[in-house]
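Students often ask why inverse folding is considered easier than folding. One informal answer: many sequences map to the same fold, so there is more than one right answer. In these notes we will look at a single instance of the problem. The structure comes first.
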């Protein structure tokens, strides 16, 4: 990545033209950025920087030559700059925009240029470069030396006592430069990782003393700053411009101060960002904690495959960018205070019950602009007249919103916060025309009657134009020249044009101004005087209008606190109305909070039911501390069921109603998920290692108030090891954490734990077979809806008490299109294994957990499966009562085969490789069996 001054120019600095020398000077000062240099109607980059811009933006490079030599250049059209700037930002470049800060017509020599802003992925403020309805954050992580301020760790909410004692404190700050939102907290390494996942910054500053491993999980652009930026005293000085530094701990001060210093640098401001009204200090424990794994596993904001609907997409019935950001924030940080949750439910219920009021509010909100970003542009002095009219239109909608929710007790608080700002609205309407031009320097912005001096100047200009408008008719009558015309050009001013054939009639008071091919242009003394009056008046009017507008903008900026408070209220109203709309349209129910466990009647997955019209609802009855072991077929809906239970909790605590017929829910402190398999190749972690790391976090940090979702723990290793890990995890969750847990597994041996532990229960997903041998049939009073069917089995997606009789893995393989020979062979092996189990008493499975299970099935060896699978013994499959000593050749072959099978790296094997390996193992097993047959015949 090439940034800074081009080396080829630095080598011959003394030979450069004045403009290129100016470019090099700017590029050296902003050596971490691509400098785009305003030259006429283009922003240009040169030499190595031009190569980068051309590659990223797919533009053509050109070769330029002057007295100093040849160099490459690439230009971005100023009028279409946002399109190309976005490409550079998406490629994680910083861009320093060097504008002309002097009028070229007034410049004597080289036009002065200066960097007016530095664009980075986390600090853009241009509307064209921002995603509507979502925040763009830049974050900062700073550390405090061990032992300096133990209080800096109070914000982490971590439960690992050893880490609380030994880990250094980290400050985490974030700011949205476009809206002014700024917040800071502190915690240990685990808390930093969790907060960065929730903040989801577009850019991250990392202080020199921070262990890189702490921020490894942040998938965004990293920015390096001068170490002096993170000096405690320097950071304190910057923070002091925004808030009392003593309100924050040491690490928080460094993080917030360094971050705000960087924000000021990118905006080209010498002083504080006035629209950053306050720096909020928060404690993550005051909201439902969702780490990166939970956010990803529950698909709150991002679908696993990068497309399709998310929970946010499903709920987003907002009408404004303000409401959209607020709804997103509520889902990222659901509440944990029962009173606050129920107050939000009251407000949603009030909107849900009042259709006319809800729709009136939503109609009014459709006219609302993004107040936060408008206030930011106004405070930065970058707002134009259209921005002020947008502010007026938004303020004009507030009285309608207040009237619609008047008299509703549950909405009284937010109604009180909806300050219509009547004085500001009247000021804007009095000053700015209804449809102002885009540019504020060319006049036509300020209403007549707003300023007496401006009105007088405009009158002079208007009277002059009226005099000139009548001049043509008067001069035709005076001179007798019928085709005489009066016109105007910017170069020559006003003129009287006479064709060559009529020149003999030209009066003596006409002075020649311009000669054309077929005519001459003249002026008179009076026309020249009027021209000077008009042009002078228009110039003075434009200048005065700009002064008046700038003063008006400053007066509006002085009210940024009031605008910010109104923006907060509008955002809340929009988000509440959106939740009510979703509840009404999708038949959600208000949850009863404070229950001692989870109780859901006919719950549904809010996203899946949108795309699956025959979605099967299911109940969930989980007293506090229950560990529910969920078994059943693949594709039966286990993962969907677990997610819908967790989403009901998240929705309820965010203030939403939930998709169910009835809901009684506790207030949980955290939701942990381990649902779905994925690896981290770039990080050097296999699926199993990642699974174990996520399991570690759950077992360390879950409490009795947590909800835990675990899916197929232990599947990435050998059967014995995986089953042992799964059993031990269940026992730990039951005995040590007491967390309410949904534990999906194919280790059917674990279901015996329900007989040994008080709070372990079995649940399974029903399936039926054509002959009714396996699975569970639905009772006639509750018909099931088939969802996935093969030739022999139908998956019903209905959860029941008890354990499943089978996982139906072979049937799913058949549905997936696995070759018939593989499916047939798999059926034979499963049947042989079942026959073997029925013919022998069961023994302890030896799970390694320390708690034996008398009913567990012993792990089968390949030797046993192979023997039964080929029908040795009586009745086509039962083992003979006295098995003769097998030939040595078979014994050796089976031993080698078993060793290779146990050593096979399953966690690193792709599905295709697994199928090929299975085919090879099958071939070797058949060879061993044939050797055995030959020995018996001999």
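Output (designed amino acids):
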């Amino acid at each position: 990545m090439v940034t800074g001054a081009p080396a080829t120019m630095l080598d011959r600095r003394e030979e450069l033209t004045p403009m290129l020398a100016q470019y090099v000077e700017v590029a050296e000062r902003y050596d971490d950025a691509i400098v785009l240099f305003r030259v006429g109607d283009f922003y240009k980059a040169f030499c190595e920087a031009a190569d980068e811009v051309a590659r990223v933006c797919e533009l053509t490079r050109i070769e330029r030559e002057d007295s100093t030599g040849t160099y490459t250049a690439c230009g971005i059209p100023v009028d279409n700059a946002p399109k190309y700037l976005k490409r550079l930002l998406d490629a994680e470049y910083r861009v320093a925009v060097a504008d002309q800060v002097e009028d070229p017509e007034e410049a004597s020599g080289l036009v002065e240029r200066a960097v007016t802003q530095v664009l980075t992925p986390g600090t853009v403020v241009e509307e064209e470069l921002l995603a509507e309805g979502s925040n763009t954050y830049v974050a900062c992580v700073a550390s405090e030396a061990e032992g300096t301020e133990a209080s800096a760790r109070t914000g982490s909410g971590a439960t690992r006592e050893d880490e609380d004692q030994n880990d250094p404190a980290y400050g985490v700050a974030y700011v949205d430069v476009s809206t002014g939102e700024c917040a800071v907290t502190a915690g240990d390494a685990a808390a930093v990782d969790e907060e960065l996942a929730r903040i989801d910054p577009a850019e991250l500053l990392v202080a020199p003393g921070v262990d890189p491993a702490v921020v490894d999980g942040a998938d965004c652009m990293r920015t390096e700053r001068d170490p002096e930026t993170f000096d405690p005293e320097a950071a304190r000085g910057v923070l002091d411009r925004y808030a009392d530094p003593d309100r924050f701990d040491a690490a928080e001060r460094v993080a917030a101060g360094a971050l705000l210093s960087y924000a000021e640098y990118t905006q080209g401001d010498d002083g504080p960002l006035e629209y950053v009204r306050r720096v909020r200090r928060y404690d993550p424990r005051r909201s439902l904690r969702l780490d990166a794994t939970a956010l990803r596993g529950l698909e709150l904001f991002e679908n696993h495959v990068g497309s399709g609907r998310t929970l946010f997409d499903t709920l987003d019935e907002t009408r404004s960018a303000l409401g959209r950001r607020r709804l997103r924030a509520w889902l990222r940080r659901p509440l944990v205070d029962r009173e606050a949750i129920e107050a939000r439910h009251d407000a949603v219920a009030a909107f849900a019950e009042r259709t006319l009021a809800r729709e009136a509010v939503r109609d009014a909100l459709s006219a609302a602009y993004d107040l936060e970003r408008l206030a930011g542009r106004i405070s930065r002095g970058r707002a134009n007249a259209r921005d002020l009219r947008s502010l007026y239109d938004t303020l004009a909608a507030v009285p309608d919103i207040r009237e619609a929710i008047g008299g509703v007790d549950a909405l009284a608080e937010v109604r009180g916060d909806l300050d219509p700002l009547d004085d500001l609205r009247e000021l804007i309407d009095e000053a700015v025309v209804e449809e102002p031009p885009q540019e504020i320097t060319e006049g036509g912005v300020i209403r007549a009657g707003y300023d007496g001096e401006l009105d007088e100047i405009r009158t002079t200009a208007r009277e002059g134009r009226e005099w000139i408008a009548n001049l043509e008719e008067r001069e035709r009558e005076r001179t007798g020249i019928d085709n005489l015309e009066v016109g105007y050009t910017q170069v020559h001013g006003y003129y009287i044009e006479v064709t060559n054939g009529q020149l003999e009639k030209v009066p003596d008071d006409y002075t020649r101004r311009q000669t054309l091919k077929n005519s001459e242009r003249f002026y008179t003394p009076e026309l020249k005087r009027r021209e000077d009056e008009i042009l002078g008046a228009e110039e003075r009017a434009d200048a005065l209008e700009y002064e008046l507008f700038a003063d008006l903008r400053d007066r509006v900026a002085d009210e940024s606190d009031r605008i910010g408070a109104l923006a907060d209220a509008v955002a809340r109203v929009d988000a509440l109305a959106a939740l009510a709309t979703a509840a009404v349209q999708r038949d959600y129910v208000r949850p009863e909070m404070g229950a001692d466990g989870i109780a859901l009647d006919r719950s549904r997955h809010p996203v899946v039911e949108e795309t699956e019209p025959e979605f099967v609802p299911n109940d969930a009855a989980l007293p506090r501390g229950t560990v529910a072991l969920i078994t059943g077929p693949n594709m039966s809906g286990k993962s969907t069921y677990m997610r819908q239970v967790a989403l009901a909790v998240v929705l309820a605590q965010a203030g939403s109603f939930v998709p169910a017929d009835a809901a009684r829910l506790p207030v949980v402190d955290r939701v942990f998920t381990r649902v779905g398999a994925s690896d981290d190749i770039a990080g050097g972690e296999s699926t199993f290692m990642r699974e174990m790391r996520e399991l570690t976090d759950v077992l360390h940090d879950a409490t009795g108030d947590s909800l835990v979702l675990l899916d197929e723990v232990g599947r990435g290793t050998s059967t014995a090891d995986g089953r042992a890990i799964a059993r031990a995890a269940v026992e730990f969750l039951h005995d040590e954490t007491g967390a309410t847990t949904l534990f999906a597994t194919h280790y059917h041996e674990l279901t015996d734990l329900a007989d040994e532990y008080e709070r372990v229960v079995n649940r399974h997903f029903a399936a039926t077979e054509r002959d009714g041998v396996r699975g569970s049939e639905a009772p006639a009073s509750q018909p099931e809806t088939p969802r996935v069917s093969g030739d022999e089995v139908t998956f019903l997606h209905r959860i029941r008490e008890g354990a499943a009789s089978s996982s139906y893995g072979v049937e799913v393989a058949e549905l997936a299109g696995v070759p018939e020979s593989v499916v047939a062979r798999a059926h034979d092996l499963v049947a042989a294994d079942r026959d073997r189990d029925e013919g022998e008493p069961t023994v302890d499975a030896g799970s390694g957990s320390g708690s034996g299970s008398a009913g567990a099935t012993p792990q089968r060896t390949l030797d046993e499966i192979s023997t039964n699978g080929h029908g040795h013994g009586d009745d086509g499959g039962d083992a003979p009562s006295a098995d003769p000593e097998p030939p040595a050749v078979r014994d050796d072959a089976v031993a080698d085969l078993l060793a290779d099978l146990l050593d096979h790296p399953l966690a690193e094997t792709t599905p295709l490789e697994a199928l090929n390996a299975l085919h090879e193992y099958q071939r070797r097993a058949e060879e061993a069996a044939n050797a055995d047959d030959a020995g018996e015949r001999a």
